[in-house]
Write a structure and sequence with these properties.
The structure holds three protein chains of three kinds. Chain B is of the alpha+beta class. Chain B contains three helices and ten strands, in the order H-H-E-E-E-E-E-E-E-E-E-E-H. In chain B, helix 1 packs antiparallel against helix 2 (about 65-95). Chain C is globular and about 55 Å long. The chains are: A mainly alpha, B alpha+beta, C mainly beta.
């Protein structure tokens, strides 16, 4: 294999920093790109929050930047709002969180944690990053084509998406790049984990993080082809006059459409959600993996039930393929099918609760260190708890009748992904930063980042659950003013939304802007610490047990000076009669 | 204090709605209990096992069957919700048609960005529709002018219904997917082009309510609202007569 | 500087000669046959629109003035000389008032700005269903009082409509020359500035389609009258029988 130690010495600048085949550098590339997209997607949301809190009011300061087609006189147009909505979702999921959770953390730490010198297919790994990069660039370009970026929601349901403006075509091309990237990556993870484990690293000695990455890789590999097919078929409908998803007899704006017809609108939704539900677990499983590492490390004790957790995880991964139609309860479903998907949805809640309960029980009897990574990890538990629990009423088709497509749904999945997955990612960044750079991030700035973020997250998403229960539909440009119970003149309209429920938009927006403000300490801390952070004195500053801490900080090309041997399970903390409160996997004696 | 007012649900005006509200309350009760339990547990543990108070961690942690017990309890609770409430409701209401003779049957057709309500008129038979007859000003539903059943059909942008009689509505769309949402009736159903999907409900309150579109359907989605007017039986009949009188006039738009 | 002055001078002279040589065609369009009973538009879907009218608004398929003169008929010279004409800078204005487009039929020149006004304070979306030109669909929420658009290609008669209020429609024709006019309620049109020649005058109505007539402009200051009559379709059927 050419990923041996010496190939790096003569590497040119391009080979080393741009088209690198080193899993760690690719991980860093994924990380930086993913964080930038995360920030970009976050900014799109901040813009939307202005329109929702102050509908039809000109945006101060920045309003003039967006031009006549998007924000004439600084007031956002509905078409631009719809672009922001669709692209916020797409960017956060496919360009932000997945690349960070899988591309960055997975790439960097899976080989290290299993004692491998690199990924099994380094060139495939590079191709995966560059396909992702191209996908991202395509998405960005789409903002500048006539009609702007895709505006049919991140779900891109036809017929709306098929008759939409040019941006949708670019969205589809972008998605094809991104899916290709994920497929290349997932094959690589599976082969690496099965083939490149160091001596002694049996499957049941793998850190839980590696298990989550393995499960995630299978989800990506098996679920993404369905979306790739859906994207290509939709592209054909748009460009090649096919009608896979277009029924006959469509009349748009009073004009009879000349699609040959016979297509199925619902086929797309089935293909889409066949990916997009496992995708939820692609977002959340690596996060659970990261949290597990950090909770074990900072409670100084083994996690409460490694084996049940692994079994629950694999079961979760399997079940995630048979719940997709719970997103489609209201498409006209009979009793038999809706009962099946409700039942699977209820079943899938059990392994999630098993994992969450195991992590909470781990805390019992620990000697808990409250450092910044641990704060984020601890906050993950109740936040993900709310996200999971609010999934229950949505998973029951009867309750879903009222809650479907309301702000309740937005609140629910954001609790899973934002204070859930994102907190895990922040936690992971603070935790592994010393391994990647050889320096620690600043603790004070970390606290300044954590506490306001934790509070404002709840100010943002808790009111959404209330708005949803009150019946506010999502994706409304005017934030529901059309459905207000009284007009500004005080006339009763028969609407359901009170001024108080609509007014919560202001609270949410204030929360969002506050949160934006308190990301500055993180951004500053991140870059400052790369060069001026406190140097770590040991390769294992957190006194952890897994193999990545056996490598130098930062690890050189090829990772380990000598191939590490694994002697025990991943979380042997506070072993009775041991010399210290941690017994690393790579250390022969306890 | 009435427990059924704890959640900010909108006003309820249909016969079946309390079943949906009940299940929402029961699930939220479970969620609240679990969350509070977990939160108290976490706070207690974080306090008790803080490094300062508990410098030496225990390798074995706790052995408890509490968590297994809790998981089994949740599983049983979920099965009860499913089998006892959600599935029976679906099969008896969503997946069934009203079995009363006084049912009001009508069609609702969604389009970007408006709703069209189609009543069959006095003969109780819907006129044939075809897209070639659609004229946005005079015939938005494309009712065939040569079909005798279509002569007495009524087209309205708002949904008028009588109180106390089941309304059986066939939903379709002209262009993209919409979602027919009547929040006060606890009715929500995607409206899908190429398909005709029925919903039904029995209004229990008179008054003016609304139809909302709950599925993103384009730039005017947020404005796709129409009125839902529930009349007393007599008022509904007089509204129908008024409409029938208006549609009995032979309009001429050069098509005939 | 001097050069510029001369050019200006020359141009003015040229234009004057051109104008002096030009002829005019005018006429009146009347309707014949039973006056159809038109359907009132139901605007109840949007209370804002509904509140703006005291009397029912009828569909606009046939709008007649006193003496059965026809409005909304578009008249143009079908075989106008192909050359480049000066594009007027003055915009054509179409307004959305009471959830109706005024005017209902309009002609505009290539590259001439079209100013679209929203006087209703509710959402309209301006959806032009053009084929040769690029189709556009722009939202005009209450706050957006006006918006300007140009068309790049010649295109005869396409619909512009509002999807929020499906009854709203306007017919637009993008012309490559200035020889066109639209009748108002008084049913008259006037096409000025035509050079001498034999011209085909075509009148267009959204339901009653087109009629053509040949008119000769002999020379200087020639004024020709070309009147047209549209008939209710039932009359034609009878005649055929």
């Amino acid at each position: 294999m050419d990923n041996s130690l010496d190939s790096s010495h003569s590497a040119s600048f391009w080979r080393k920093y741009v088209f690198s085949i080193d899993h760690k550098w690719i991980g860093i590339q994924y990380g930086i790109t993913g964080l930038l997209f995360l920030l970009f997607g976050f900014c799109l949301m901040l813009l939307m929050r202005w329109q929702l809190a102050y509908p039809e009011r000109p945006l101060p300061f920045f309003g003039a930047w967006f031009g006549e087609l998007r924000m004439p006189e600084g007031v956002m147009l509905p078409e631009f709002y719809n672009q922001l909505g669709a692209m916020h979702g797409t960017i956060m999921i496919f360009l932000g969180v997945v690349p960070l959770a899988v591309g960055a953390f997975g790439n960097y730490f899976v080989p290290l944690q299993i004692g491998a010198p690199d990924m099994a297919f380094p060139r495939l790994n590079m191709a995966s990053y560059w396909a992702y990069f191209l996908g991202g660039v395509t998405m960005l370009i789409s903002f500048f084509v006539p009609g702007g970026a895709a505006n049919s929601g991140w779900t891109s349901y036809p017929p709306l998406a098929v008759i939409a403006t040019t941006g949708q075509t670019l969205w589809l091309f972008g998605m094809i790049f991104l899916i290709t990237s994920s497929l290349l990556g997932s094959i690589n993870f599976i082969v690496t984990i099965f083939q490149l484990r160091a001596p002694g690293m049996t499957l049941m000695r793998m850190p839980f993080f590696v298990w989550t990455q393995l499960t995630t890789a299978f989800l990506l590999l098996l679920a993404f082809p369905a979306l790739e097919v859906a994207a290509i078929l939709q592209l054909m409908d748009r460009l090649a006059d096919t009608s896979f998803f277009m029924p006959s007899g469509l009349v748009v704006s009073g004009e009879i459409q000349d699609y040959s017809g016979g297509g199925s609108v619902l086929l797309y939704q089935h293909l889409f959600w066949f990916l997009a539900h496992p995708e939820v677990y692609v977002l959340i499983l690596p996060a659970m993996g990261i949290i597990t590492e950090i909770i074990a490390n900072n409670t100084r004790k083994p996690i409460g039930g490694y084996k049940p957790m692994v079994y629950a995880l694999v079961f979760l991964g399997f079940m995630s393929f048979v719940v997709w139609a719970h997103h489609m309860f209201l498409t006209g479903m009979g009793t038999a099918i809706s009962s099946f998907f409700q039942a699977t949805t209820m079943i899938i809640s059990i392994p999630s609760i098993v994992i969450l309960a195991a992590l909470m029980l781990t805390l019992w009897g620990g000697s808990i260190r409250f450092n910044v990574p641990m704060l984020f990890a601890l906050a993950f538990l109740p936040m993900f708890g709310i996200g999971g629990l609010t999934g229950l009423p949505l998973g029951l088709s009867t309750a879903d009748i009222h809650l479907h497509d309301t702000y309740y749904v937005i609140g629910h999945f954001h609790y899973v992904v934002a204070p859930g997955t994102l907190f895990a990612l922040f936690s992971g960044i603070y935790y592994w930063f010393p391994k990647v750079t050889g320096r620690k991030m600043n603790e004070f700035l970390g606290h300044l980042h954590f506490w306001p973020t934790f509070i404002s997250m709840n100010i943002i998403f808790m009111p959404m659950l209330i708005q949803g229960l009150a019946g506010m539909s999502r994706r409304l440009w005017d934030g529901g003013l059309t459905y207000a119970d009284t007009t500004p003149e005080g006339v009763l309209t028969g609407g359901i939304l009170t001024a108080g429920i609509i007014g919560l938009h202001k609270v949410i927006s204030m929360g969002a802007w506050t949160m934006a403000l308190f990301q500055i300490p993180f951004i500053f801390n991140f870059f400052w610490s790369i060069w001026w952070g406190k140097k770590v004195t040991s390769d294992n500053p957190w006194e952890a047990t897994t193999l990545e801490w056996a490598a130098p900080s930062p690890p050189p090309h090829g990772n380990f000076a000598t191939v590490p041997v694994t002697y025990r399970g991943p979380y042997e903390y506070s072993v009775p009669d041991a010399e210290r409160d941690f017994s690393p996997q790579f250390q022969e004696t306890i | 204090m009435n427990l059924m007012n704890l959640l900010p649900l909108p006003e309820l005006a249909s016969a079946h709605g309390y079943k949906i509200d009940f299940i929402i309350y029961v699930v939220h009760g479970l969620m609240f209990a679990l969350f509070v339990g977990w939160a108290l547990f976490i706070l207690y543990v974080l306090f008790r096992f803080h490094r300062r108070r508990h410098p030496k961690a225990s390798y074995h942690g706790i052995h408890t069957h509490w968590s297994t017990g809790l998981e089994v309890f949740i599983a049983i609770f979920e099965v009860a919700l499913l089998v006892g409430l959600s599935i029976p409701f679906w099969s008896s209401h969503v997946d069934a048609a009203p079995n009363r003779t006084d049912t009001v049957e009508l069609r609702v057709v969604g389009e970007q960005f408006a709703w069209n309500v189609h009543y069959p008129g006095a003969d109780g038979v819907f006129g044939k529709t075809d897209i070639i007859h659609i004229d946005q000003q005079s015939n938005p539903l494309g009712i065939d002018p040569n079909d005798p059943h279509g002569k007495d059909d009524i087209t309205s942008p708002n949904l008028h219904l009588p109180i106390g009689r089941p309304a059986y509505i066939h939903l379709t769309s002209k262009d993209v997917i919409h979602c027919f949402s009547l929040p006060v009736m606890r009715v929500k159903q995607d409206v899908i082009p190429g398909m005709s999907i029925p919903v039904w409900f029995t209004p229990t309150k008179t008054g003016e309510f609304e139809i909302a579109c709950a599925q993103l359907c384009g730039l005017g989605h947020y404005k796709m609202r129409a009125g839902l007017i529930i009349h007393s039986d007599e008022d509904f009949q007089s509204w129908l007569d008024e409409q029938a009188a208006a549609s009995a006039v032979e309009y001429d738009d050069f098509f005939n | 500087m001097r050069n510029e002055k001369y050019t200006c001078f020359l141009l003015v002279i040229l234009m004057m000669t051109f104008a002096a040589q030009a002829g005019t065609i005018k006429g009146t369009i009347v309707y014949e046959g039973p006056i159809p009973k038109l359907k009132p538009i139901n605007m109840e879907a949007d209370p804002i629109c509904h509140a703006k009218h005291d009397t029912p608004v009828l569909v606009e398929t046939l709008v007649l003035g006193e003496g059965r003169t026809m409005a909304n008929v578009f008249v143009h010279v079908k075989n106008a000389p192909k050359k480049s004409y000066e594009t007027p800078e003055e915009p054509v204005v179409i307004s959305q008032k009471g959830c109706v487009y005024t005017p209902h039929v309009l002609g505009i020149m290539v590259d001439q700005p079209m100013k679209i006004m929203n006087e209703d304070g509710t959402l309209h979306n301006v959806h032009a269903l053009c084929k040769t030109n690029k189709e556009f669909n722009v939202a005009m929420p209450g706050f957006r009082k006006e918006f300007t658009k140009t068309f790049k290609e010649e295109e005869f008669m396409f619909l512009m409509k509002c999807d929020v209020h499906p009854w709203m429609s306007a017919w637009i024709s993008v012309m490559g020359h200035p020889f066109f006019d639209t009748t108002g309620k008084e049913g008259t049109y006037e096409i000025k500035g035509l050079p001498p020649g034999v011209w085909q005058i075509e009148v267009w109505h959204e339901r009653l389609k087109t009629q053509t007539r040949t008119v000769k402009i002999a020379g200087k200051d020639d004024v020709q009258v070309a009147d047209f009559t549209y008939q209710h379709p039932s009359l034609k059927k009878k005649a055929a029988k």
